[in-house]
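Hi team,

Below is the intake form for Outer membrane protein beta-barrel domain-containing protein from Rufibacter quisquiliarum. Please confirm the fields before the structure is written into the shared record.

FORM ID: S-0412
PROTEIN: Outer membrane protein beta-barrel domain-containing protein
ORGANISM: Rufibacter quisquiliarum
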Amino acid sequence: MKNFLLIAFLLVGPAALAQKFTVKGKVVDDKNSALPSATVLLLQPRDSTLVSFASTDAQGTFDLKNLNGLVLVKISFVSFEPFYKTIEAPAVPGVVDLGTIVLKTAANALGEVVVQGEQDPVRIKKDTIEFNAGSFKTQPNAAVEELLKKLPGVEVASDGSVSVQGEKVQRVTVDGKEFFGNDPKLATKNLPADAVKKVQVYDKKSDQAEFSGIEDGQRTKTLNLELKEDKKNAVFGSVMAGAGTDSRFQGKFNLNRFQKVKQFSVLGMGNNVNTQGFGIDEYLAFSGGLQQMASGGGLRIEIGPNSAIPLNTGDRTNGLMRTYGGGANFNQSLGKNTEATGNYFLNHLNHDVRHVLEREEFRPTGNIFLNQTGSQENTNTSHRLNFAVDHKLDSANSVKLTVNAGLSTSKGVGTSVSRTVNAAGEFQNSGDSRNNTTGQGGNATASLLLRHKFPKKGRTLSLTAQGSLNQNDAENLNYGVYRFTERPTETIHQYRESETNSHSYSATLNGTEPLGNRRYLEASYLFRQNRNISDQKVFDLQDGERLINQNQSNRYNSDFQYHRANVNFRVNRDAFSFAVGPGFQHSDLIGYVRQKENRPVQKSFDNFLPSARFNYDFGSNRRFDFNYETSVQEPSVRQLQPLPDSSNRLNVYVGNPGLRPAYQHQLRANFTMFNPTSMISFFARGFMNYTTDAITNSVTYGAGLSRTSQPVNVRYSRISGVNLNVGYPVRKLNSRFNVGLSLREQQSINLIDNSATTTENRTVGGNLRYEYRLDQKFEVSLRSDLSLQTTNYSAEGSRDQQFLNQTYTGEATVYLPLHFHLNGVLDYLVYNNPDLGFRQNIPLLNVSLAKQFLKNNTGELRLVAVNLLDKNMGINQTASANYVQRETMNSLGQYFLLQFTYTLNKHLNTMGSRGGGIRIMR
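The structure came back. Fields below:
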């Protein structure tokens, strides 16, 4: 690490010491009127390489700092002829003032503006930065993700997530339309770079702000891909198939048919090499949630017995996975006033995980030690359908209908063998269990949004009505033998049926009223009702007969409904805006348990819910946001059910109908800065969540050290954190650095044997990333991630824990003659727990060699070697309220794969990736 930092300093040092100067000026038209948002480019005269760019402010002025050497200034504005001027660096550092620059009206300004020949690589249009994709060369058949890596100010992380100007992109559209919902990676990983004409980056206003015309300070970093004209009436995509050793296989495809008023895409994948294929959001939707994932090679700290803080999940998945998935997406313009969009996904996943777990539990009467081995094989099949239509009735009214539905089936087989001893090594209990589970479920949600604008500007009214249905059925066959020292051996052989039905409906009314001088009153009212019915029947299997177990069978009904009203006072100004106001919520919880006798539960809660939001725009791409909100979280059905779940005699769970809703305060503060001159980006983010009546689990130990867990309310829980990141390029070295720092603190109260304990966790993390690109010849990236977690316990007998997690990654790609390219990735993972004397180093090496061939390089043959050193291992370390544990899991071993990829593109233009005469280097 020290050597890496020394090299980085030596690389950056000479460039930092070079003499710098500033170029400034003012841009006006031929009538001497200022031209705001004119694009100012600084190019290297010898090859038109982009040095920097900016835009003029409201007065038409610009100021470009930290320049050196000979530069070519190009200033352009729509409908005006561009201005060029070559500037030499002054003898002494200072300011080169170009004075007032007059742009002449273009000859074709009266008609449609047509740009021919050389095109600007970057244009700034008000709040939008637009990149000309043709100016950024990519390899044939490259995905959009590879194009984004070459754009100034754009970062692509190892997991495929995209950040622009230091902010994470939350939404990617294609020609302004949604592409497979809200997962940006589905577009960036599946669409070809050759199809893109322009990449536009902007902060999208909220739907409410766009409708009402009232700025509310809520923005979403959005990236829009504008397609080339010939791709809007073409079929394009790619197909990949691969096979390898140990019967490994991988395949995927995507096909796209885009037109000006219609978009249609299909994609599919299948493999047994633990590749997700789609974005993580889609994967989670496919697999039914995080419970199907094992965060391989990662380290996590778990503060509460029922919640974990993932600190480094990594990009690997433990166990062995076989997955198939496919989907279709469409967007259709039905006339000028109607837009329709929809998508469908199907996924089938088989996941086989085998683990070995070692745990030390802290108890005032003496610590105990658990060793467990187990296996779990789950098979899930899911379908998901989304559809929306948005129709403008007229200039003042619109209606939007959104429908989401899903179906799923699951099957699981699990085994577990455990043994617990005390500090002296004396036997305390053991368990040997097997279970088989099958389940199926369905859900559907529909919402209708009606919006109306009144003649008075700023006066609006909207109504949202929503309803949802959920049903889940499961069957479980469980067999277990449990041995104790202080009580007789118990054998369980049970069959369990459970049926859960829930439905909810809500209505929300929102209104805005202008008060003059850009001041507004915002009011909202929400009514929502959630109804849950849980019916569980448990049968003891004896001598081939099923006997109902009345103590564990029950039916639980609950109704949770609330009324919420909010009023905000908003003030908008050119540089800032703020909104502040009170809110009030009245909640009613009504439920009863049907067991041997009816047991009613009825409670009411009143909560004050204030909120505040403040935004300040400093100009020059600097922005500060602050947000404070309060919310109420009601208990889940399982947390409220009072009957015990004793299917595992060593770990019994029982609900608590006396739970109160948790009340949460949330504070968020963000500062972002991006300098288009130096391409330096910086962001700082801080947050704090403070919860009163927080819900946690109380753990008690019975005879034979069996555990019983029950959710309870505690006084509070708190979590806070800060993230800092700075990115900056070194253009002379074709390099870019990113440095990040994160701090996180969490405190919670837990009950162990009815004794309250406080657990504090502090995490300090940092990362350093270096990227180097030499045209289309060589690329290298180095990354270091470190995370130090310290957990302190107030309970007597507990041992404070300290984990150190380190990941070092190096990746290099060499582009060889004859369309060959070689890629290698080395991950070196270090897991360290000094308190337990544990240290594990895991080197992972992947290498691939690819050859592109066929006409226009539409074919690619790739040989891949995965886990070449055969050292893969899954490790999780966890520190919780009263225990620390280490878990090792099976992982995919070494294998080799031969892949063939064919790109379908009827309108392939071999010069499409070269653009005009301007070349870009980050």
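SUMMARY LINE: Residues 20-121 form a domain with the Immunoglobulin-like fold (CATH 2.60.40.10).

Thanks, M.
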